[in-house]
Each structure stands twice: as structure tokens, then as C-alpha cells.
Amino acid sequence: MKNLLKVLLLACYALGVFFVSNPLALCAFALFNIFMMIFTRLSIKRAVLYMRGIAPFIILAGLINLIAGDWREAVLVIVRLVFVCNITQSFRKLIDSMQLANAIETFCRPLRIFKIEPRDVGLMVCICVAFIPVLQREFNQIKCGLQAKGMRVKPLNMKYIIKPFLYGIFKRTDEISNALRAKAYC
Question: pLDDT tens, 97-120?
Fold first, then answer.
């Protein structure tokens, strides 16, 4: 039950961050982030290293908002994404993937009315969470391969990144699907 409360708290936090534009409310979210980092004993160095890894995606989202809107919206989106990514890093220290899957199963029990099995939803969440490090490793391998060939990772070279990245994702997804079928899960 407490894992369900943790998941609900994270969901409320994430929704709150994306629906609030008031600078004072955003400062409150920042203070909550700092409190959670202290509570979970998350070092600043580790948080910065994590943010450095996802910074290109956050900057890309900011650039898209800059092109589509104005600079204030772009900055707001970047701040919101940094807050949410930081809190998820603290959240990962509080709950492991199995506890998260069990909390999602509990949360999805009302979906049985629509003939959706909560156990399947929990399994999907567990697989998604476990798949994130695989995706990071795949991206780093592609990046190292490009650097070995003398290419830099930049927007002009995205076709050399996206194509093998998607191929790797689909290959791994197919392997997981075959493993689930072999275990007679589906």
C-alpha cells in the first residue's frame, strides 16, 4: 500500500509541475526536489551526471518549444523536465521495479471492468523500467561507434544514430516477445 502512495505522490508531483506556471509554485517544487535528494541521500554529483546524460533530450524539447512558441515557454519546459527527471531519480532510490509493478497492478485493478488484466500492465511497466538501461547502453555503443569513425554526435548525424538505435530497440523487443511466448505467458 505504501508503494502505491509513493507512485501516486510521484504522479501528482509530475502533473503538478506541468500544470503550474507560477514562479512561487515552481520554487516550492524545487524545494521539494532538494528535500527528496537529501531524504534519499542522492549526491549532487550523481544527479548532475544523470542530468548530463539526458540533457540533449531536454534541450531538444526546449528548442522545439522555442521554435513553436516564445523563449519563456521554452525555459519553462526545460525547468519542468529537469524537475521531473530529478524527482524520478530520487524516486528510483525509494522503490525498485518489482515494487513499482506491484503498485501499478494495485492501481490498475479497476481496469478489470474493461477486461484489462492488471498483472499484464504491471509486467509491461516492469519491462519498461528494466529496458531503460538497455537503451542507454545501446545509445552509448552507437555514439562510441560514430566517434571511432571520426563522426561527432550532432543533429546532422541523427540518421546515423536513429536507424541503428531503432533497429536495436525492435530487435530487443522481439527477443523479449519470444521469451514471453517461450514461457507461455501470452
Answer: 778 888 888 888 888 898 888 888
CB-based contact 173:179 (threshold 8 Å): no
In 30-171, DSSP assigns E strands to none
Q: Which amino acid is at 117?
A: E
Every domain of the chain and the residues it spans: 1-95, 117-186
- HEC sequence for 19-64: HCCCHHHHHHHHHHHHHHHHHCCCCHHHHHHHHHHHHHHHHHHHHH
CB count in 10 Å sphere of residue 8 = 12
Q: Residue 54 is which amino acid?
A: I
Instruction: Measure the CA–CA gap between 87 and 164, rounded to whole angstroms.
Output: 30
Whole-angstrom distance, CA of residue 84 vs CA of residue 90: 10
User: What dihedral angle (degrees, nearest 10) is formed by the CA atoms of 98, 100, 101, 103?
Assistant: 120
Looking from the CA of 93 toward its CB, the CA atoms found within 13 Å total 14
Grid cell of 84 as nine digits: 521531473
And the C-alpha cell for 26?
515552481
Query: Which parts of the chain register pLDDT below 70?
Result: 1, 185-186
The DSSP letter of residue 108 is: T
Cβ-contact 3, 100 below 8 angstroms = yes
Q: Are 53 and 136 in contact (CB under 8 A)?
A: yes
Query: The pTM is what?
Result: 0.64
